[in-house]
Specification:
Shape: globular
Strand content: 5-15%
Largest sheet: 5 strands, parallel
CATH architecture: 3-Layer(aba) Sandwich
Strand order of the largest sheet: 2-3-1-4-5
CATH topology: Rossmann fold
CATH class: Alpha Beta
CATH superfamily: P-loop containing nucleotide triphosphate hydrolases
Number of domains: 1
Number of helices: 13
Order of helices and strands: EHEHHHHEHEHHEHHEEHHH
Number of strands: 7
C-alpha cells in the first residue's frame, strides 16, 4: 500500500536540467526510474496555478465517484502512453520498450482493488504497475525506491509529501540565461517575460518548501551536477540511505548509456562548457532583462557572477 511506498520526485523548471538529472539517476541499481516524464496530472487539477502551468505536470486530482479504470485513464502520462500505443509518432521510438499500456491498466486496477481508492494509493499503484508491465526493464534485485520526474511539480510539494510519508523531492535549478536560451530553441517558445515568470515561481516554491521540509526537500544546481554528477547526486543518495553508484557519472535509459540526452531534454551534452556557451547565445539586452527579472534568486543560488 501507499504507506510504505518510497518515492523520489524530481522537479525543475523547463530546460533547467530535470531530464539530465533524471537520466543520470536512471542506471542506479537501487532505483526504479520512470522511463519518461511521469506526467501524473489529470484534467481535474484546477487552482490558481493551473493557468500558468500545464495540468499534465501537476500532482493529480481524482473524481470522488470514479472507478479505478476511470482514475487510470484520467492520468495524462502523455509520453509513455504515446510510446506504448502509437510508437511510430513518439520521439522515443528509437529505444526498445516492451510495454503494454492495457496490461498496465489491468495491473493498476488489481492493486487499487486490493488497497482501496485514494490519491496516494492511485499514484503508488500507477508506478508499481508501470514496472510490472515493462517486460524488458532491467531488474537488479536491489531496487528500493521509485523515481519520477515531472517539470514544475515543486509547486505541489505539500501534496506529494503529505500523501507519502517516506517521499522526498529533488528540485533542480539552472542559471536562467542558459535555461532561456535553450527554451528559445523550441518550435513555439515562451516569451522571455512568460518564461521568467515560470522560472521565478518555481524557485520561490523550491526555497519555501526547503525551509518547510528541511529533511525531505533537496535542492541542487544543474551547474553542480554538470561539474561533478557523482559527487552532487552521490550526496543525495547518502541522504536517502542509498549507495552512491558509478552509474551517476553517465546518463542512460533503462541502464543503456546515452551519447546525448536529447530527446529526453534539450541539454544534449551535459558539460559546464556547453552550459556556459548556451548562455552566451543571448543578446546583451536579453541577458540584462533576465538578470532584472531573476534578481533576488541570482543571490539565493549564487548565479550573480555566472556571466
Amino acid at each position: 500500500m501507499s504507506g510504505d511506498f518510497r518515492l523520489l520526485m524530481l522537479t525543475a523548471m523547463y530546460e533547467n536540467g530535470g531530464n539530465m538529472t533524471h537520466r543520470l539517476l536512471d542506471g542506479h541499481p537501487q532505483m526504479r526510474v520512470y522511463p519518461f516524464e511521469s506526467q501524473l496530472g489529470t484534467r481535474l487539477v484546477v487552482d490558481h496555478l493551473s493557468s500558468l502551468f500545464p495540468v499534465k505536470y501537476r500532482w493529480p486530482e481524482f473524481a470522488l465517484d470514479a472507478t479505478p479504470h476511470q482514475d487510470y485513464t484520467a492520468i495524462i502520462d502523455e509520453e509513455c502512453k504515446v510510446r506504448a500505443r502509437t510508437p511510430h509518432v513518439s520521439k522515443f521510438r528509437h529505444v526498445p520498450f516492451d510495454f503494454s499500456d492495457d496490461e498496465r491498466c489491468q495491473i493498476y486496477q488489481r492493486y487499487v482493488s486490493d488497497w482501496g481508492r485514494s490519491r496516494p494509493n492511485n499514484v503508488a499503484a500507477f508506478f508499481r504497475a508501470t514496472f510490472d508491465a515493462w517486460k524488458n526493464y532491467t531488474q537488479t534485485g536491489e531496487q528500493l525506491i521509485y523515481v519520477g520526474y515531472s517539470p514544475i511539480i515543486v509547486i505541489d510539494t505539500e501534496k506529494i509529501l503529505g500523501d507519502f510519508p517516506q517521499a522526498h523531492l529533488l528540485h533542480v535549478v539552472r542559471n536562467p540565461w542558459s535555461a532561456y536560451a535553450d527554451t528559445k530553441k523550441r518550435p513555439v517558445p515562451l516569451s522571455l517575460r512568460d518564461y521568467m515568470l515560470g522560472w521565478t515561481v518555481n524557485q520561490h516554491h523550491a526555497l519555501l518548501f526547503k525551509e518547510t521540509f528541511r529533511d525531505r526537500v533537496h535542492l541542487v544546481r544543474a551547474e553542480d551536477v554538470l561539474e561533478d554528477s557523482f559527487k552532487t547526486l552521490g550526496a543525495l543518495c547518502i541522504t536517502l540511505g542509498l549507495e552512491p553508484a558509478t552509474s551517476l557519472n553517465t546518463p542512460s535509459w533503462n541502464g543503456i548509456s546515452l551519447d546525448e540526452i536529447y530527446p529526453w531534454g534539450t541539454i544534449r551534452r551535459p558539460t559546464p562548457q556547453a552550459n556556459r556557451s548556451t548562455a552566451e547565445e543571448l543578446s546583451r539586452r536579453e541577458r540584462e532583462e533576465i538578470a532584472s527579472r531573476a534578481w533576488q534568486y541570482l543571490d539565493a543560488f549564487d548565479y550573480r557572477s555566472f556571466l
